[in-house]
């Protein structure tokens, strides 16, 4: 398998740990370990205090798998495989795809979602959203592009980088089309539970379709990217078995401390999620005013879920040039749309961090000193 360089990750590698302000991050603020341990119940405290740093179970700690299953409806622990989030994409696609298969994937997006399929030797059709319609992904596109050799549809909702969340009717139509054509469905749900209105929350694909795999994890919604814990969930026993076997060639098993820390947080998930959602709502209010004040320079479609948006530069300027000048002169990292191979007119902006007000103030100062 030959994979192209991961442009987003290479760009982050240049600036993520040296720049003062990250206005491009897609996660919520990281939770200090001491705060996590303060949430431990008697069972998880004992697990932590007596933890031995040996190998762990390849499928994941049984208690962690049980807690993951509680997030879903109609799912049991035996349907849950603990992985690193990126690993989940890699093993799920390798477990189901063969050279010559056709794949349809939402785009722009996290490069692994379509690059791995291409590296396997699949034909990949990119499903692009309509910015003029609120970044909507029109399900009619799927009907028009399904081929005799189509095996898999890959979707990502809430969507990275636009923050788009389809109405439930559109999502159900995606599932119905997969079912009608006997396709597999891979659903990247890393920003689930960060909907601004909980009534907009979609069902997990694994709950409503037995040939679906759902990807979720601790990185975005729970502010625990550092534990590198995620999971794939499916009721398709054959796909599950293939993924479990493929994991023997990747990580084999997860970090013992990471599993227990994740278990503690999942048992307190409502409290954690409420804290992050409150911060997101505060930051969205600031961004509403920012884009109103700078309507001559930027245009944005307000996201419906998650921690990121994809504003457009209205001035005739390349997004990469704009983002690199901002990082040089204001010490602020924004993510140009060029890393998605999408266009050169947008940039990703993240608002899941507590220091967004300060970062936005610095960006305001930069714009004042660099008029249009």
UniProtKB/TrEMBL annotation:
Keywords: Aminotransferase, Transferase
Residue ranges occupied by any Aminotransferase class I/classII large domain in the UniProt entry: 23-363
InterPro entries linked to this entry: Aminotransferase_I/II_large, PyrdxlP-dep_Trfase, PyrdxlP-dep_Trfase_major, PyrdxlP-dep_Trfase_small
Protein name as annotated: Aspartate/tyrosine/aromatic aminotransferase
Lineage: Bacteria, Bacillati, Chloroflexota, Anaerolineae, Anaerolineales
Annotated GO MF terms: pyridoxal phosphate binding; transaminase activity
Magnesium found in the keyword field: no
């Amino acid at each position: 398998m030959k994979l192209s360089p991961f442009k987003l990750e290479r760009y982050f590698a240049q600036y993520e740990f040296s720049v003062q302000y990250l206005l491009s991050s897609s996660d919520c603020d990281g939770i200090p370990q001491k705060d996590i341990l303060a949430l431990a119940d008697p069972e998880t405290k004992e697990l932590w205090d007596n933890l031995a740093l040996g190998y762990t179970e390849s499928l994941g700690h049984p208690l962690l798998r049980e807690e993951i299953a509680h997030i879903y409806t109609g799912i049991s622990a035996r349907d849950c495989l603990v992985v690193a989030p990126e690993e989940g994409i890699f093993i799920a696609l390798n477990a189901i795809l063969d050279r010559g298969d056709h794949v349809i994937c939402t785009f722009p997006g996290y490069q692994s979602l379509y690059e791995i399929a291409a590296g396997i030797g699949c034909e990949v059709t990119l499903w692009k959203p309509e910015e003029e319609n609120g970044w909507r992904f029109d399900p009619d596109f799927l009907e028009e592009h399904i081929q005799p050799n189509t095996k898999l549809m890959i979707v990502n909702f809430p969507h990275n980088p636009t923050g788009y969340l389809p109405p439930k009717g559109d999502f159900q139509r995606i599932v119905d089309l997969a079912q009608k054509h006997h396709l597999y469905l891979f659903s990247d749900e890393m920003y689930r539970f960060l909907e601004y209105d909980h009534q907009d929350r979609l069902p997990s694909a694994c709950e409503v379709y037995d040939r679906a795999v759902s990807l979720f994890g601790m990185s975005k919604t729970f502010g625990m990217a550092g534990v590198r814990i995620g999971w794939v969930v499916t009721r398709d026993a054959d796909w599950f078995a293939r993924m479990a076997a493929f994991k023997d060639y990747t990580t084999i098993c997860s970090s013992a401390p990471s599993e227990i820390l994740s278990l503690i947080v999942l048992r307190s998930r409502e409290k954690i999620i409420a804290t992050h959602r409150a911060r997101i709502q505060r930051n969205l209010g600031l961004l509403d005013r920012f884009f109103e004040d700078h309507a001559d320079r930027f245009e944005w479609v307000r996201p419906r879920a998650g921690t990121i948006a994809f504003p457009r530069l209205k001035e005739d300027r390349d997004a990469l040039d704009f983002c690199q000048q901002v990082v040089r002169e204001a010490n602020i990292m924004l993510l140009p749309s060029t890393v998605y191979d999408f266009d050169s007119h947008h940039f990703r902006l993240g608002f899941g961090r507590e220091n967004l007000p300060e970062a936005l103030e610095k960006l305001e100062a930069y714009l004042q000193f660099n008029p249009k």
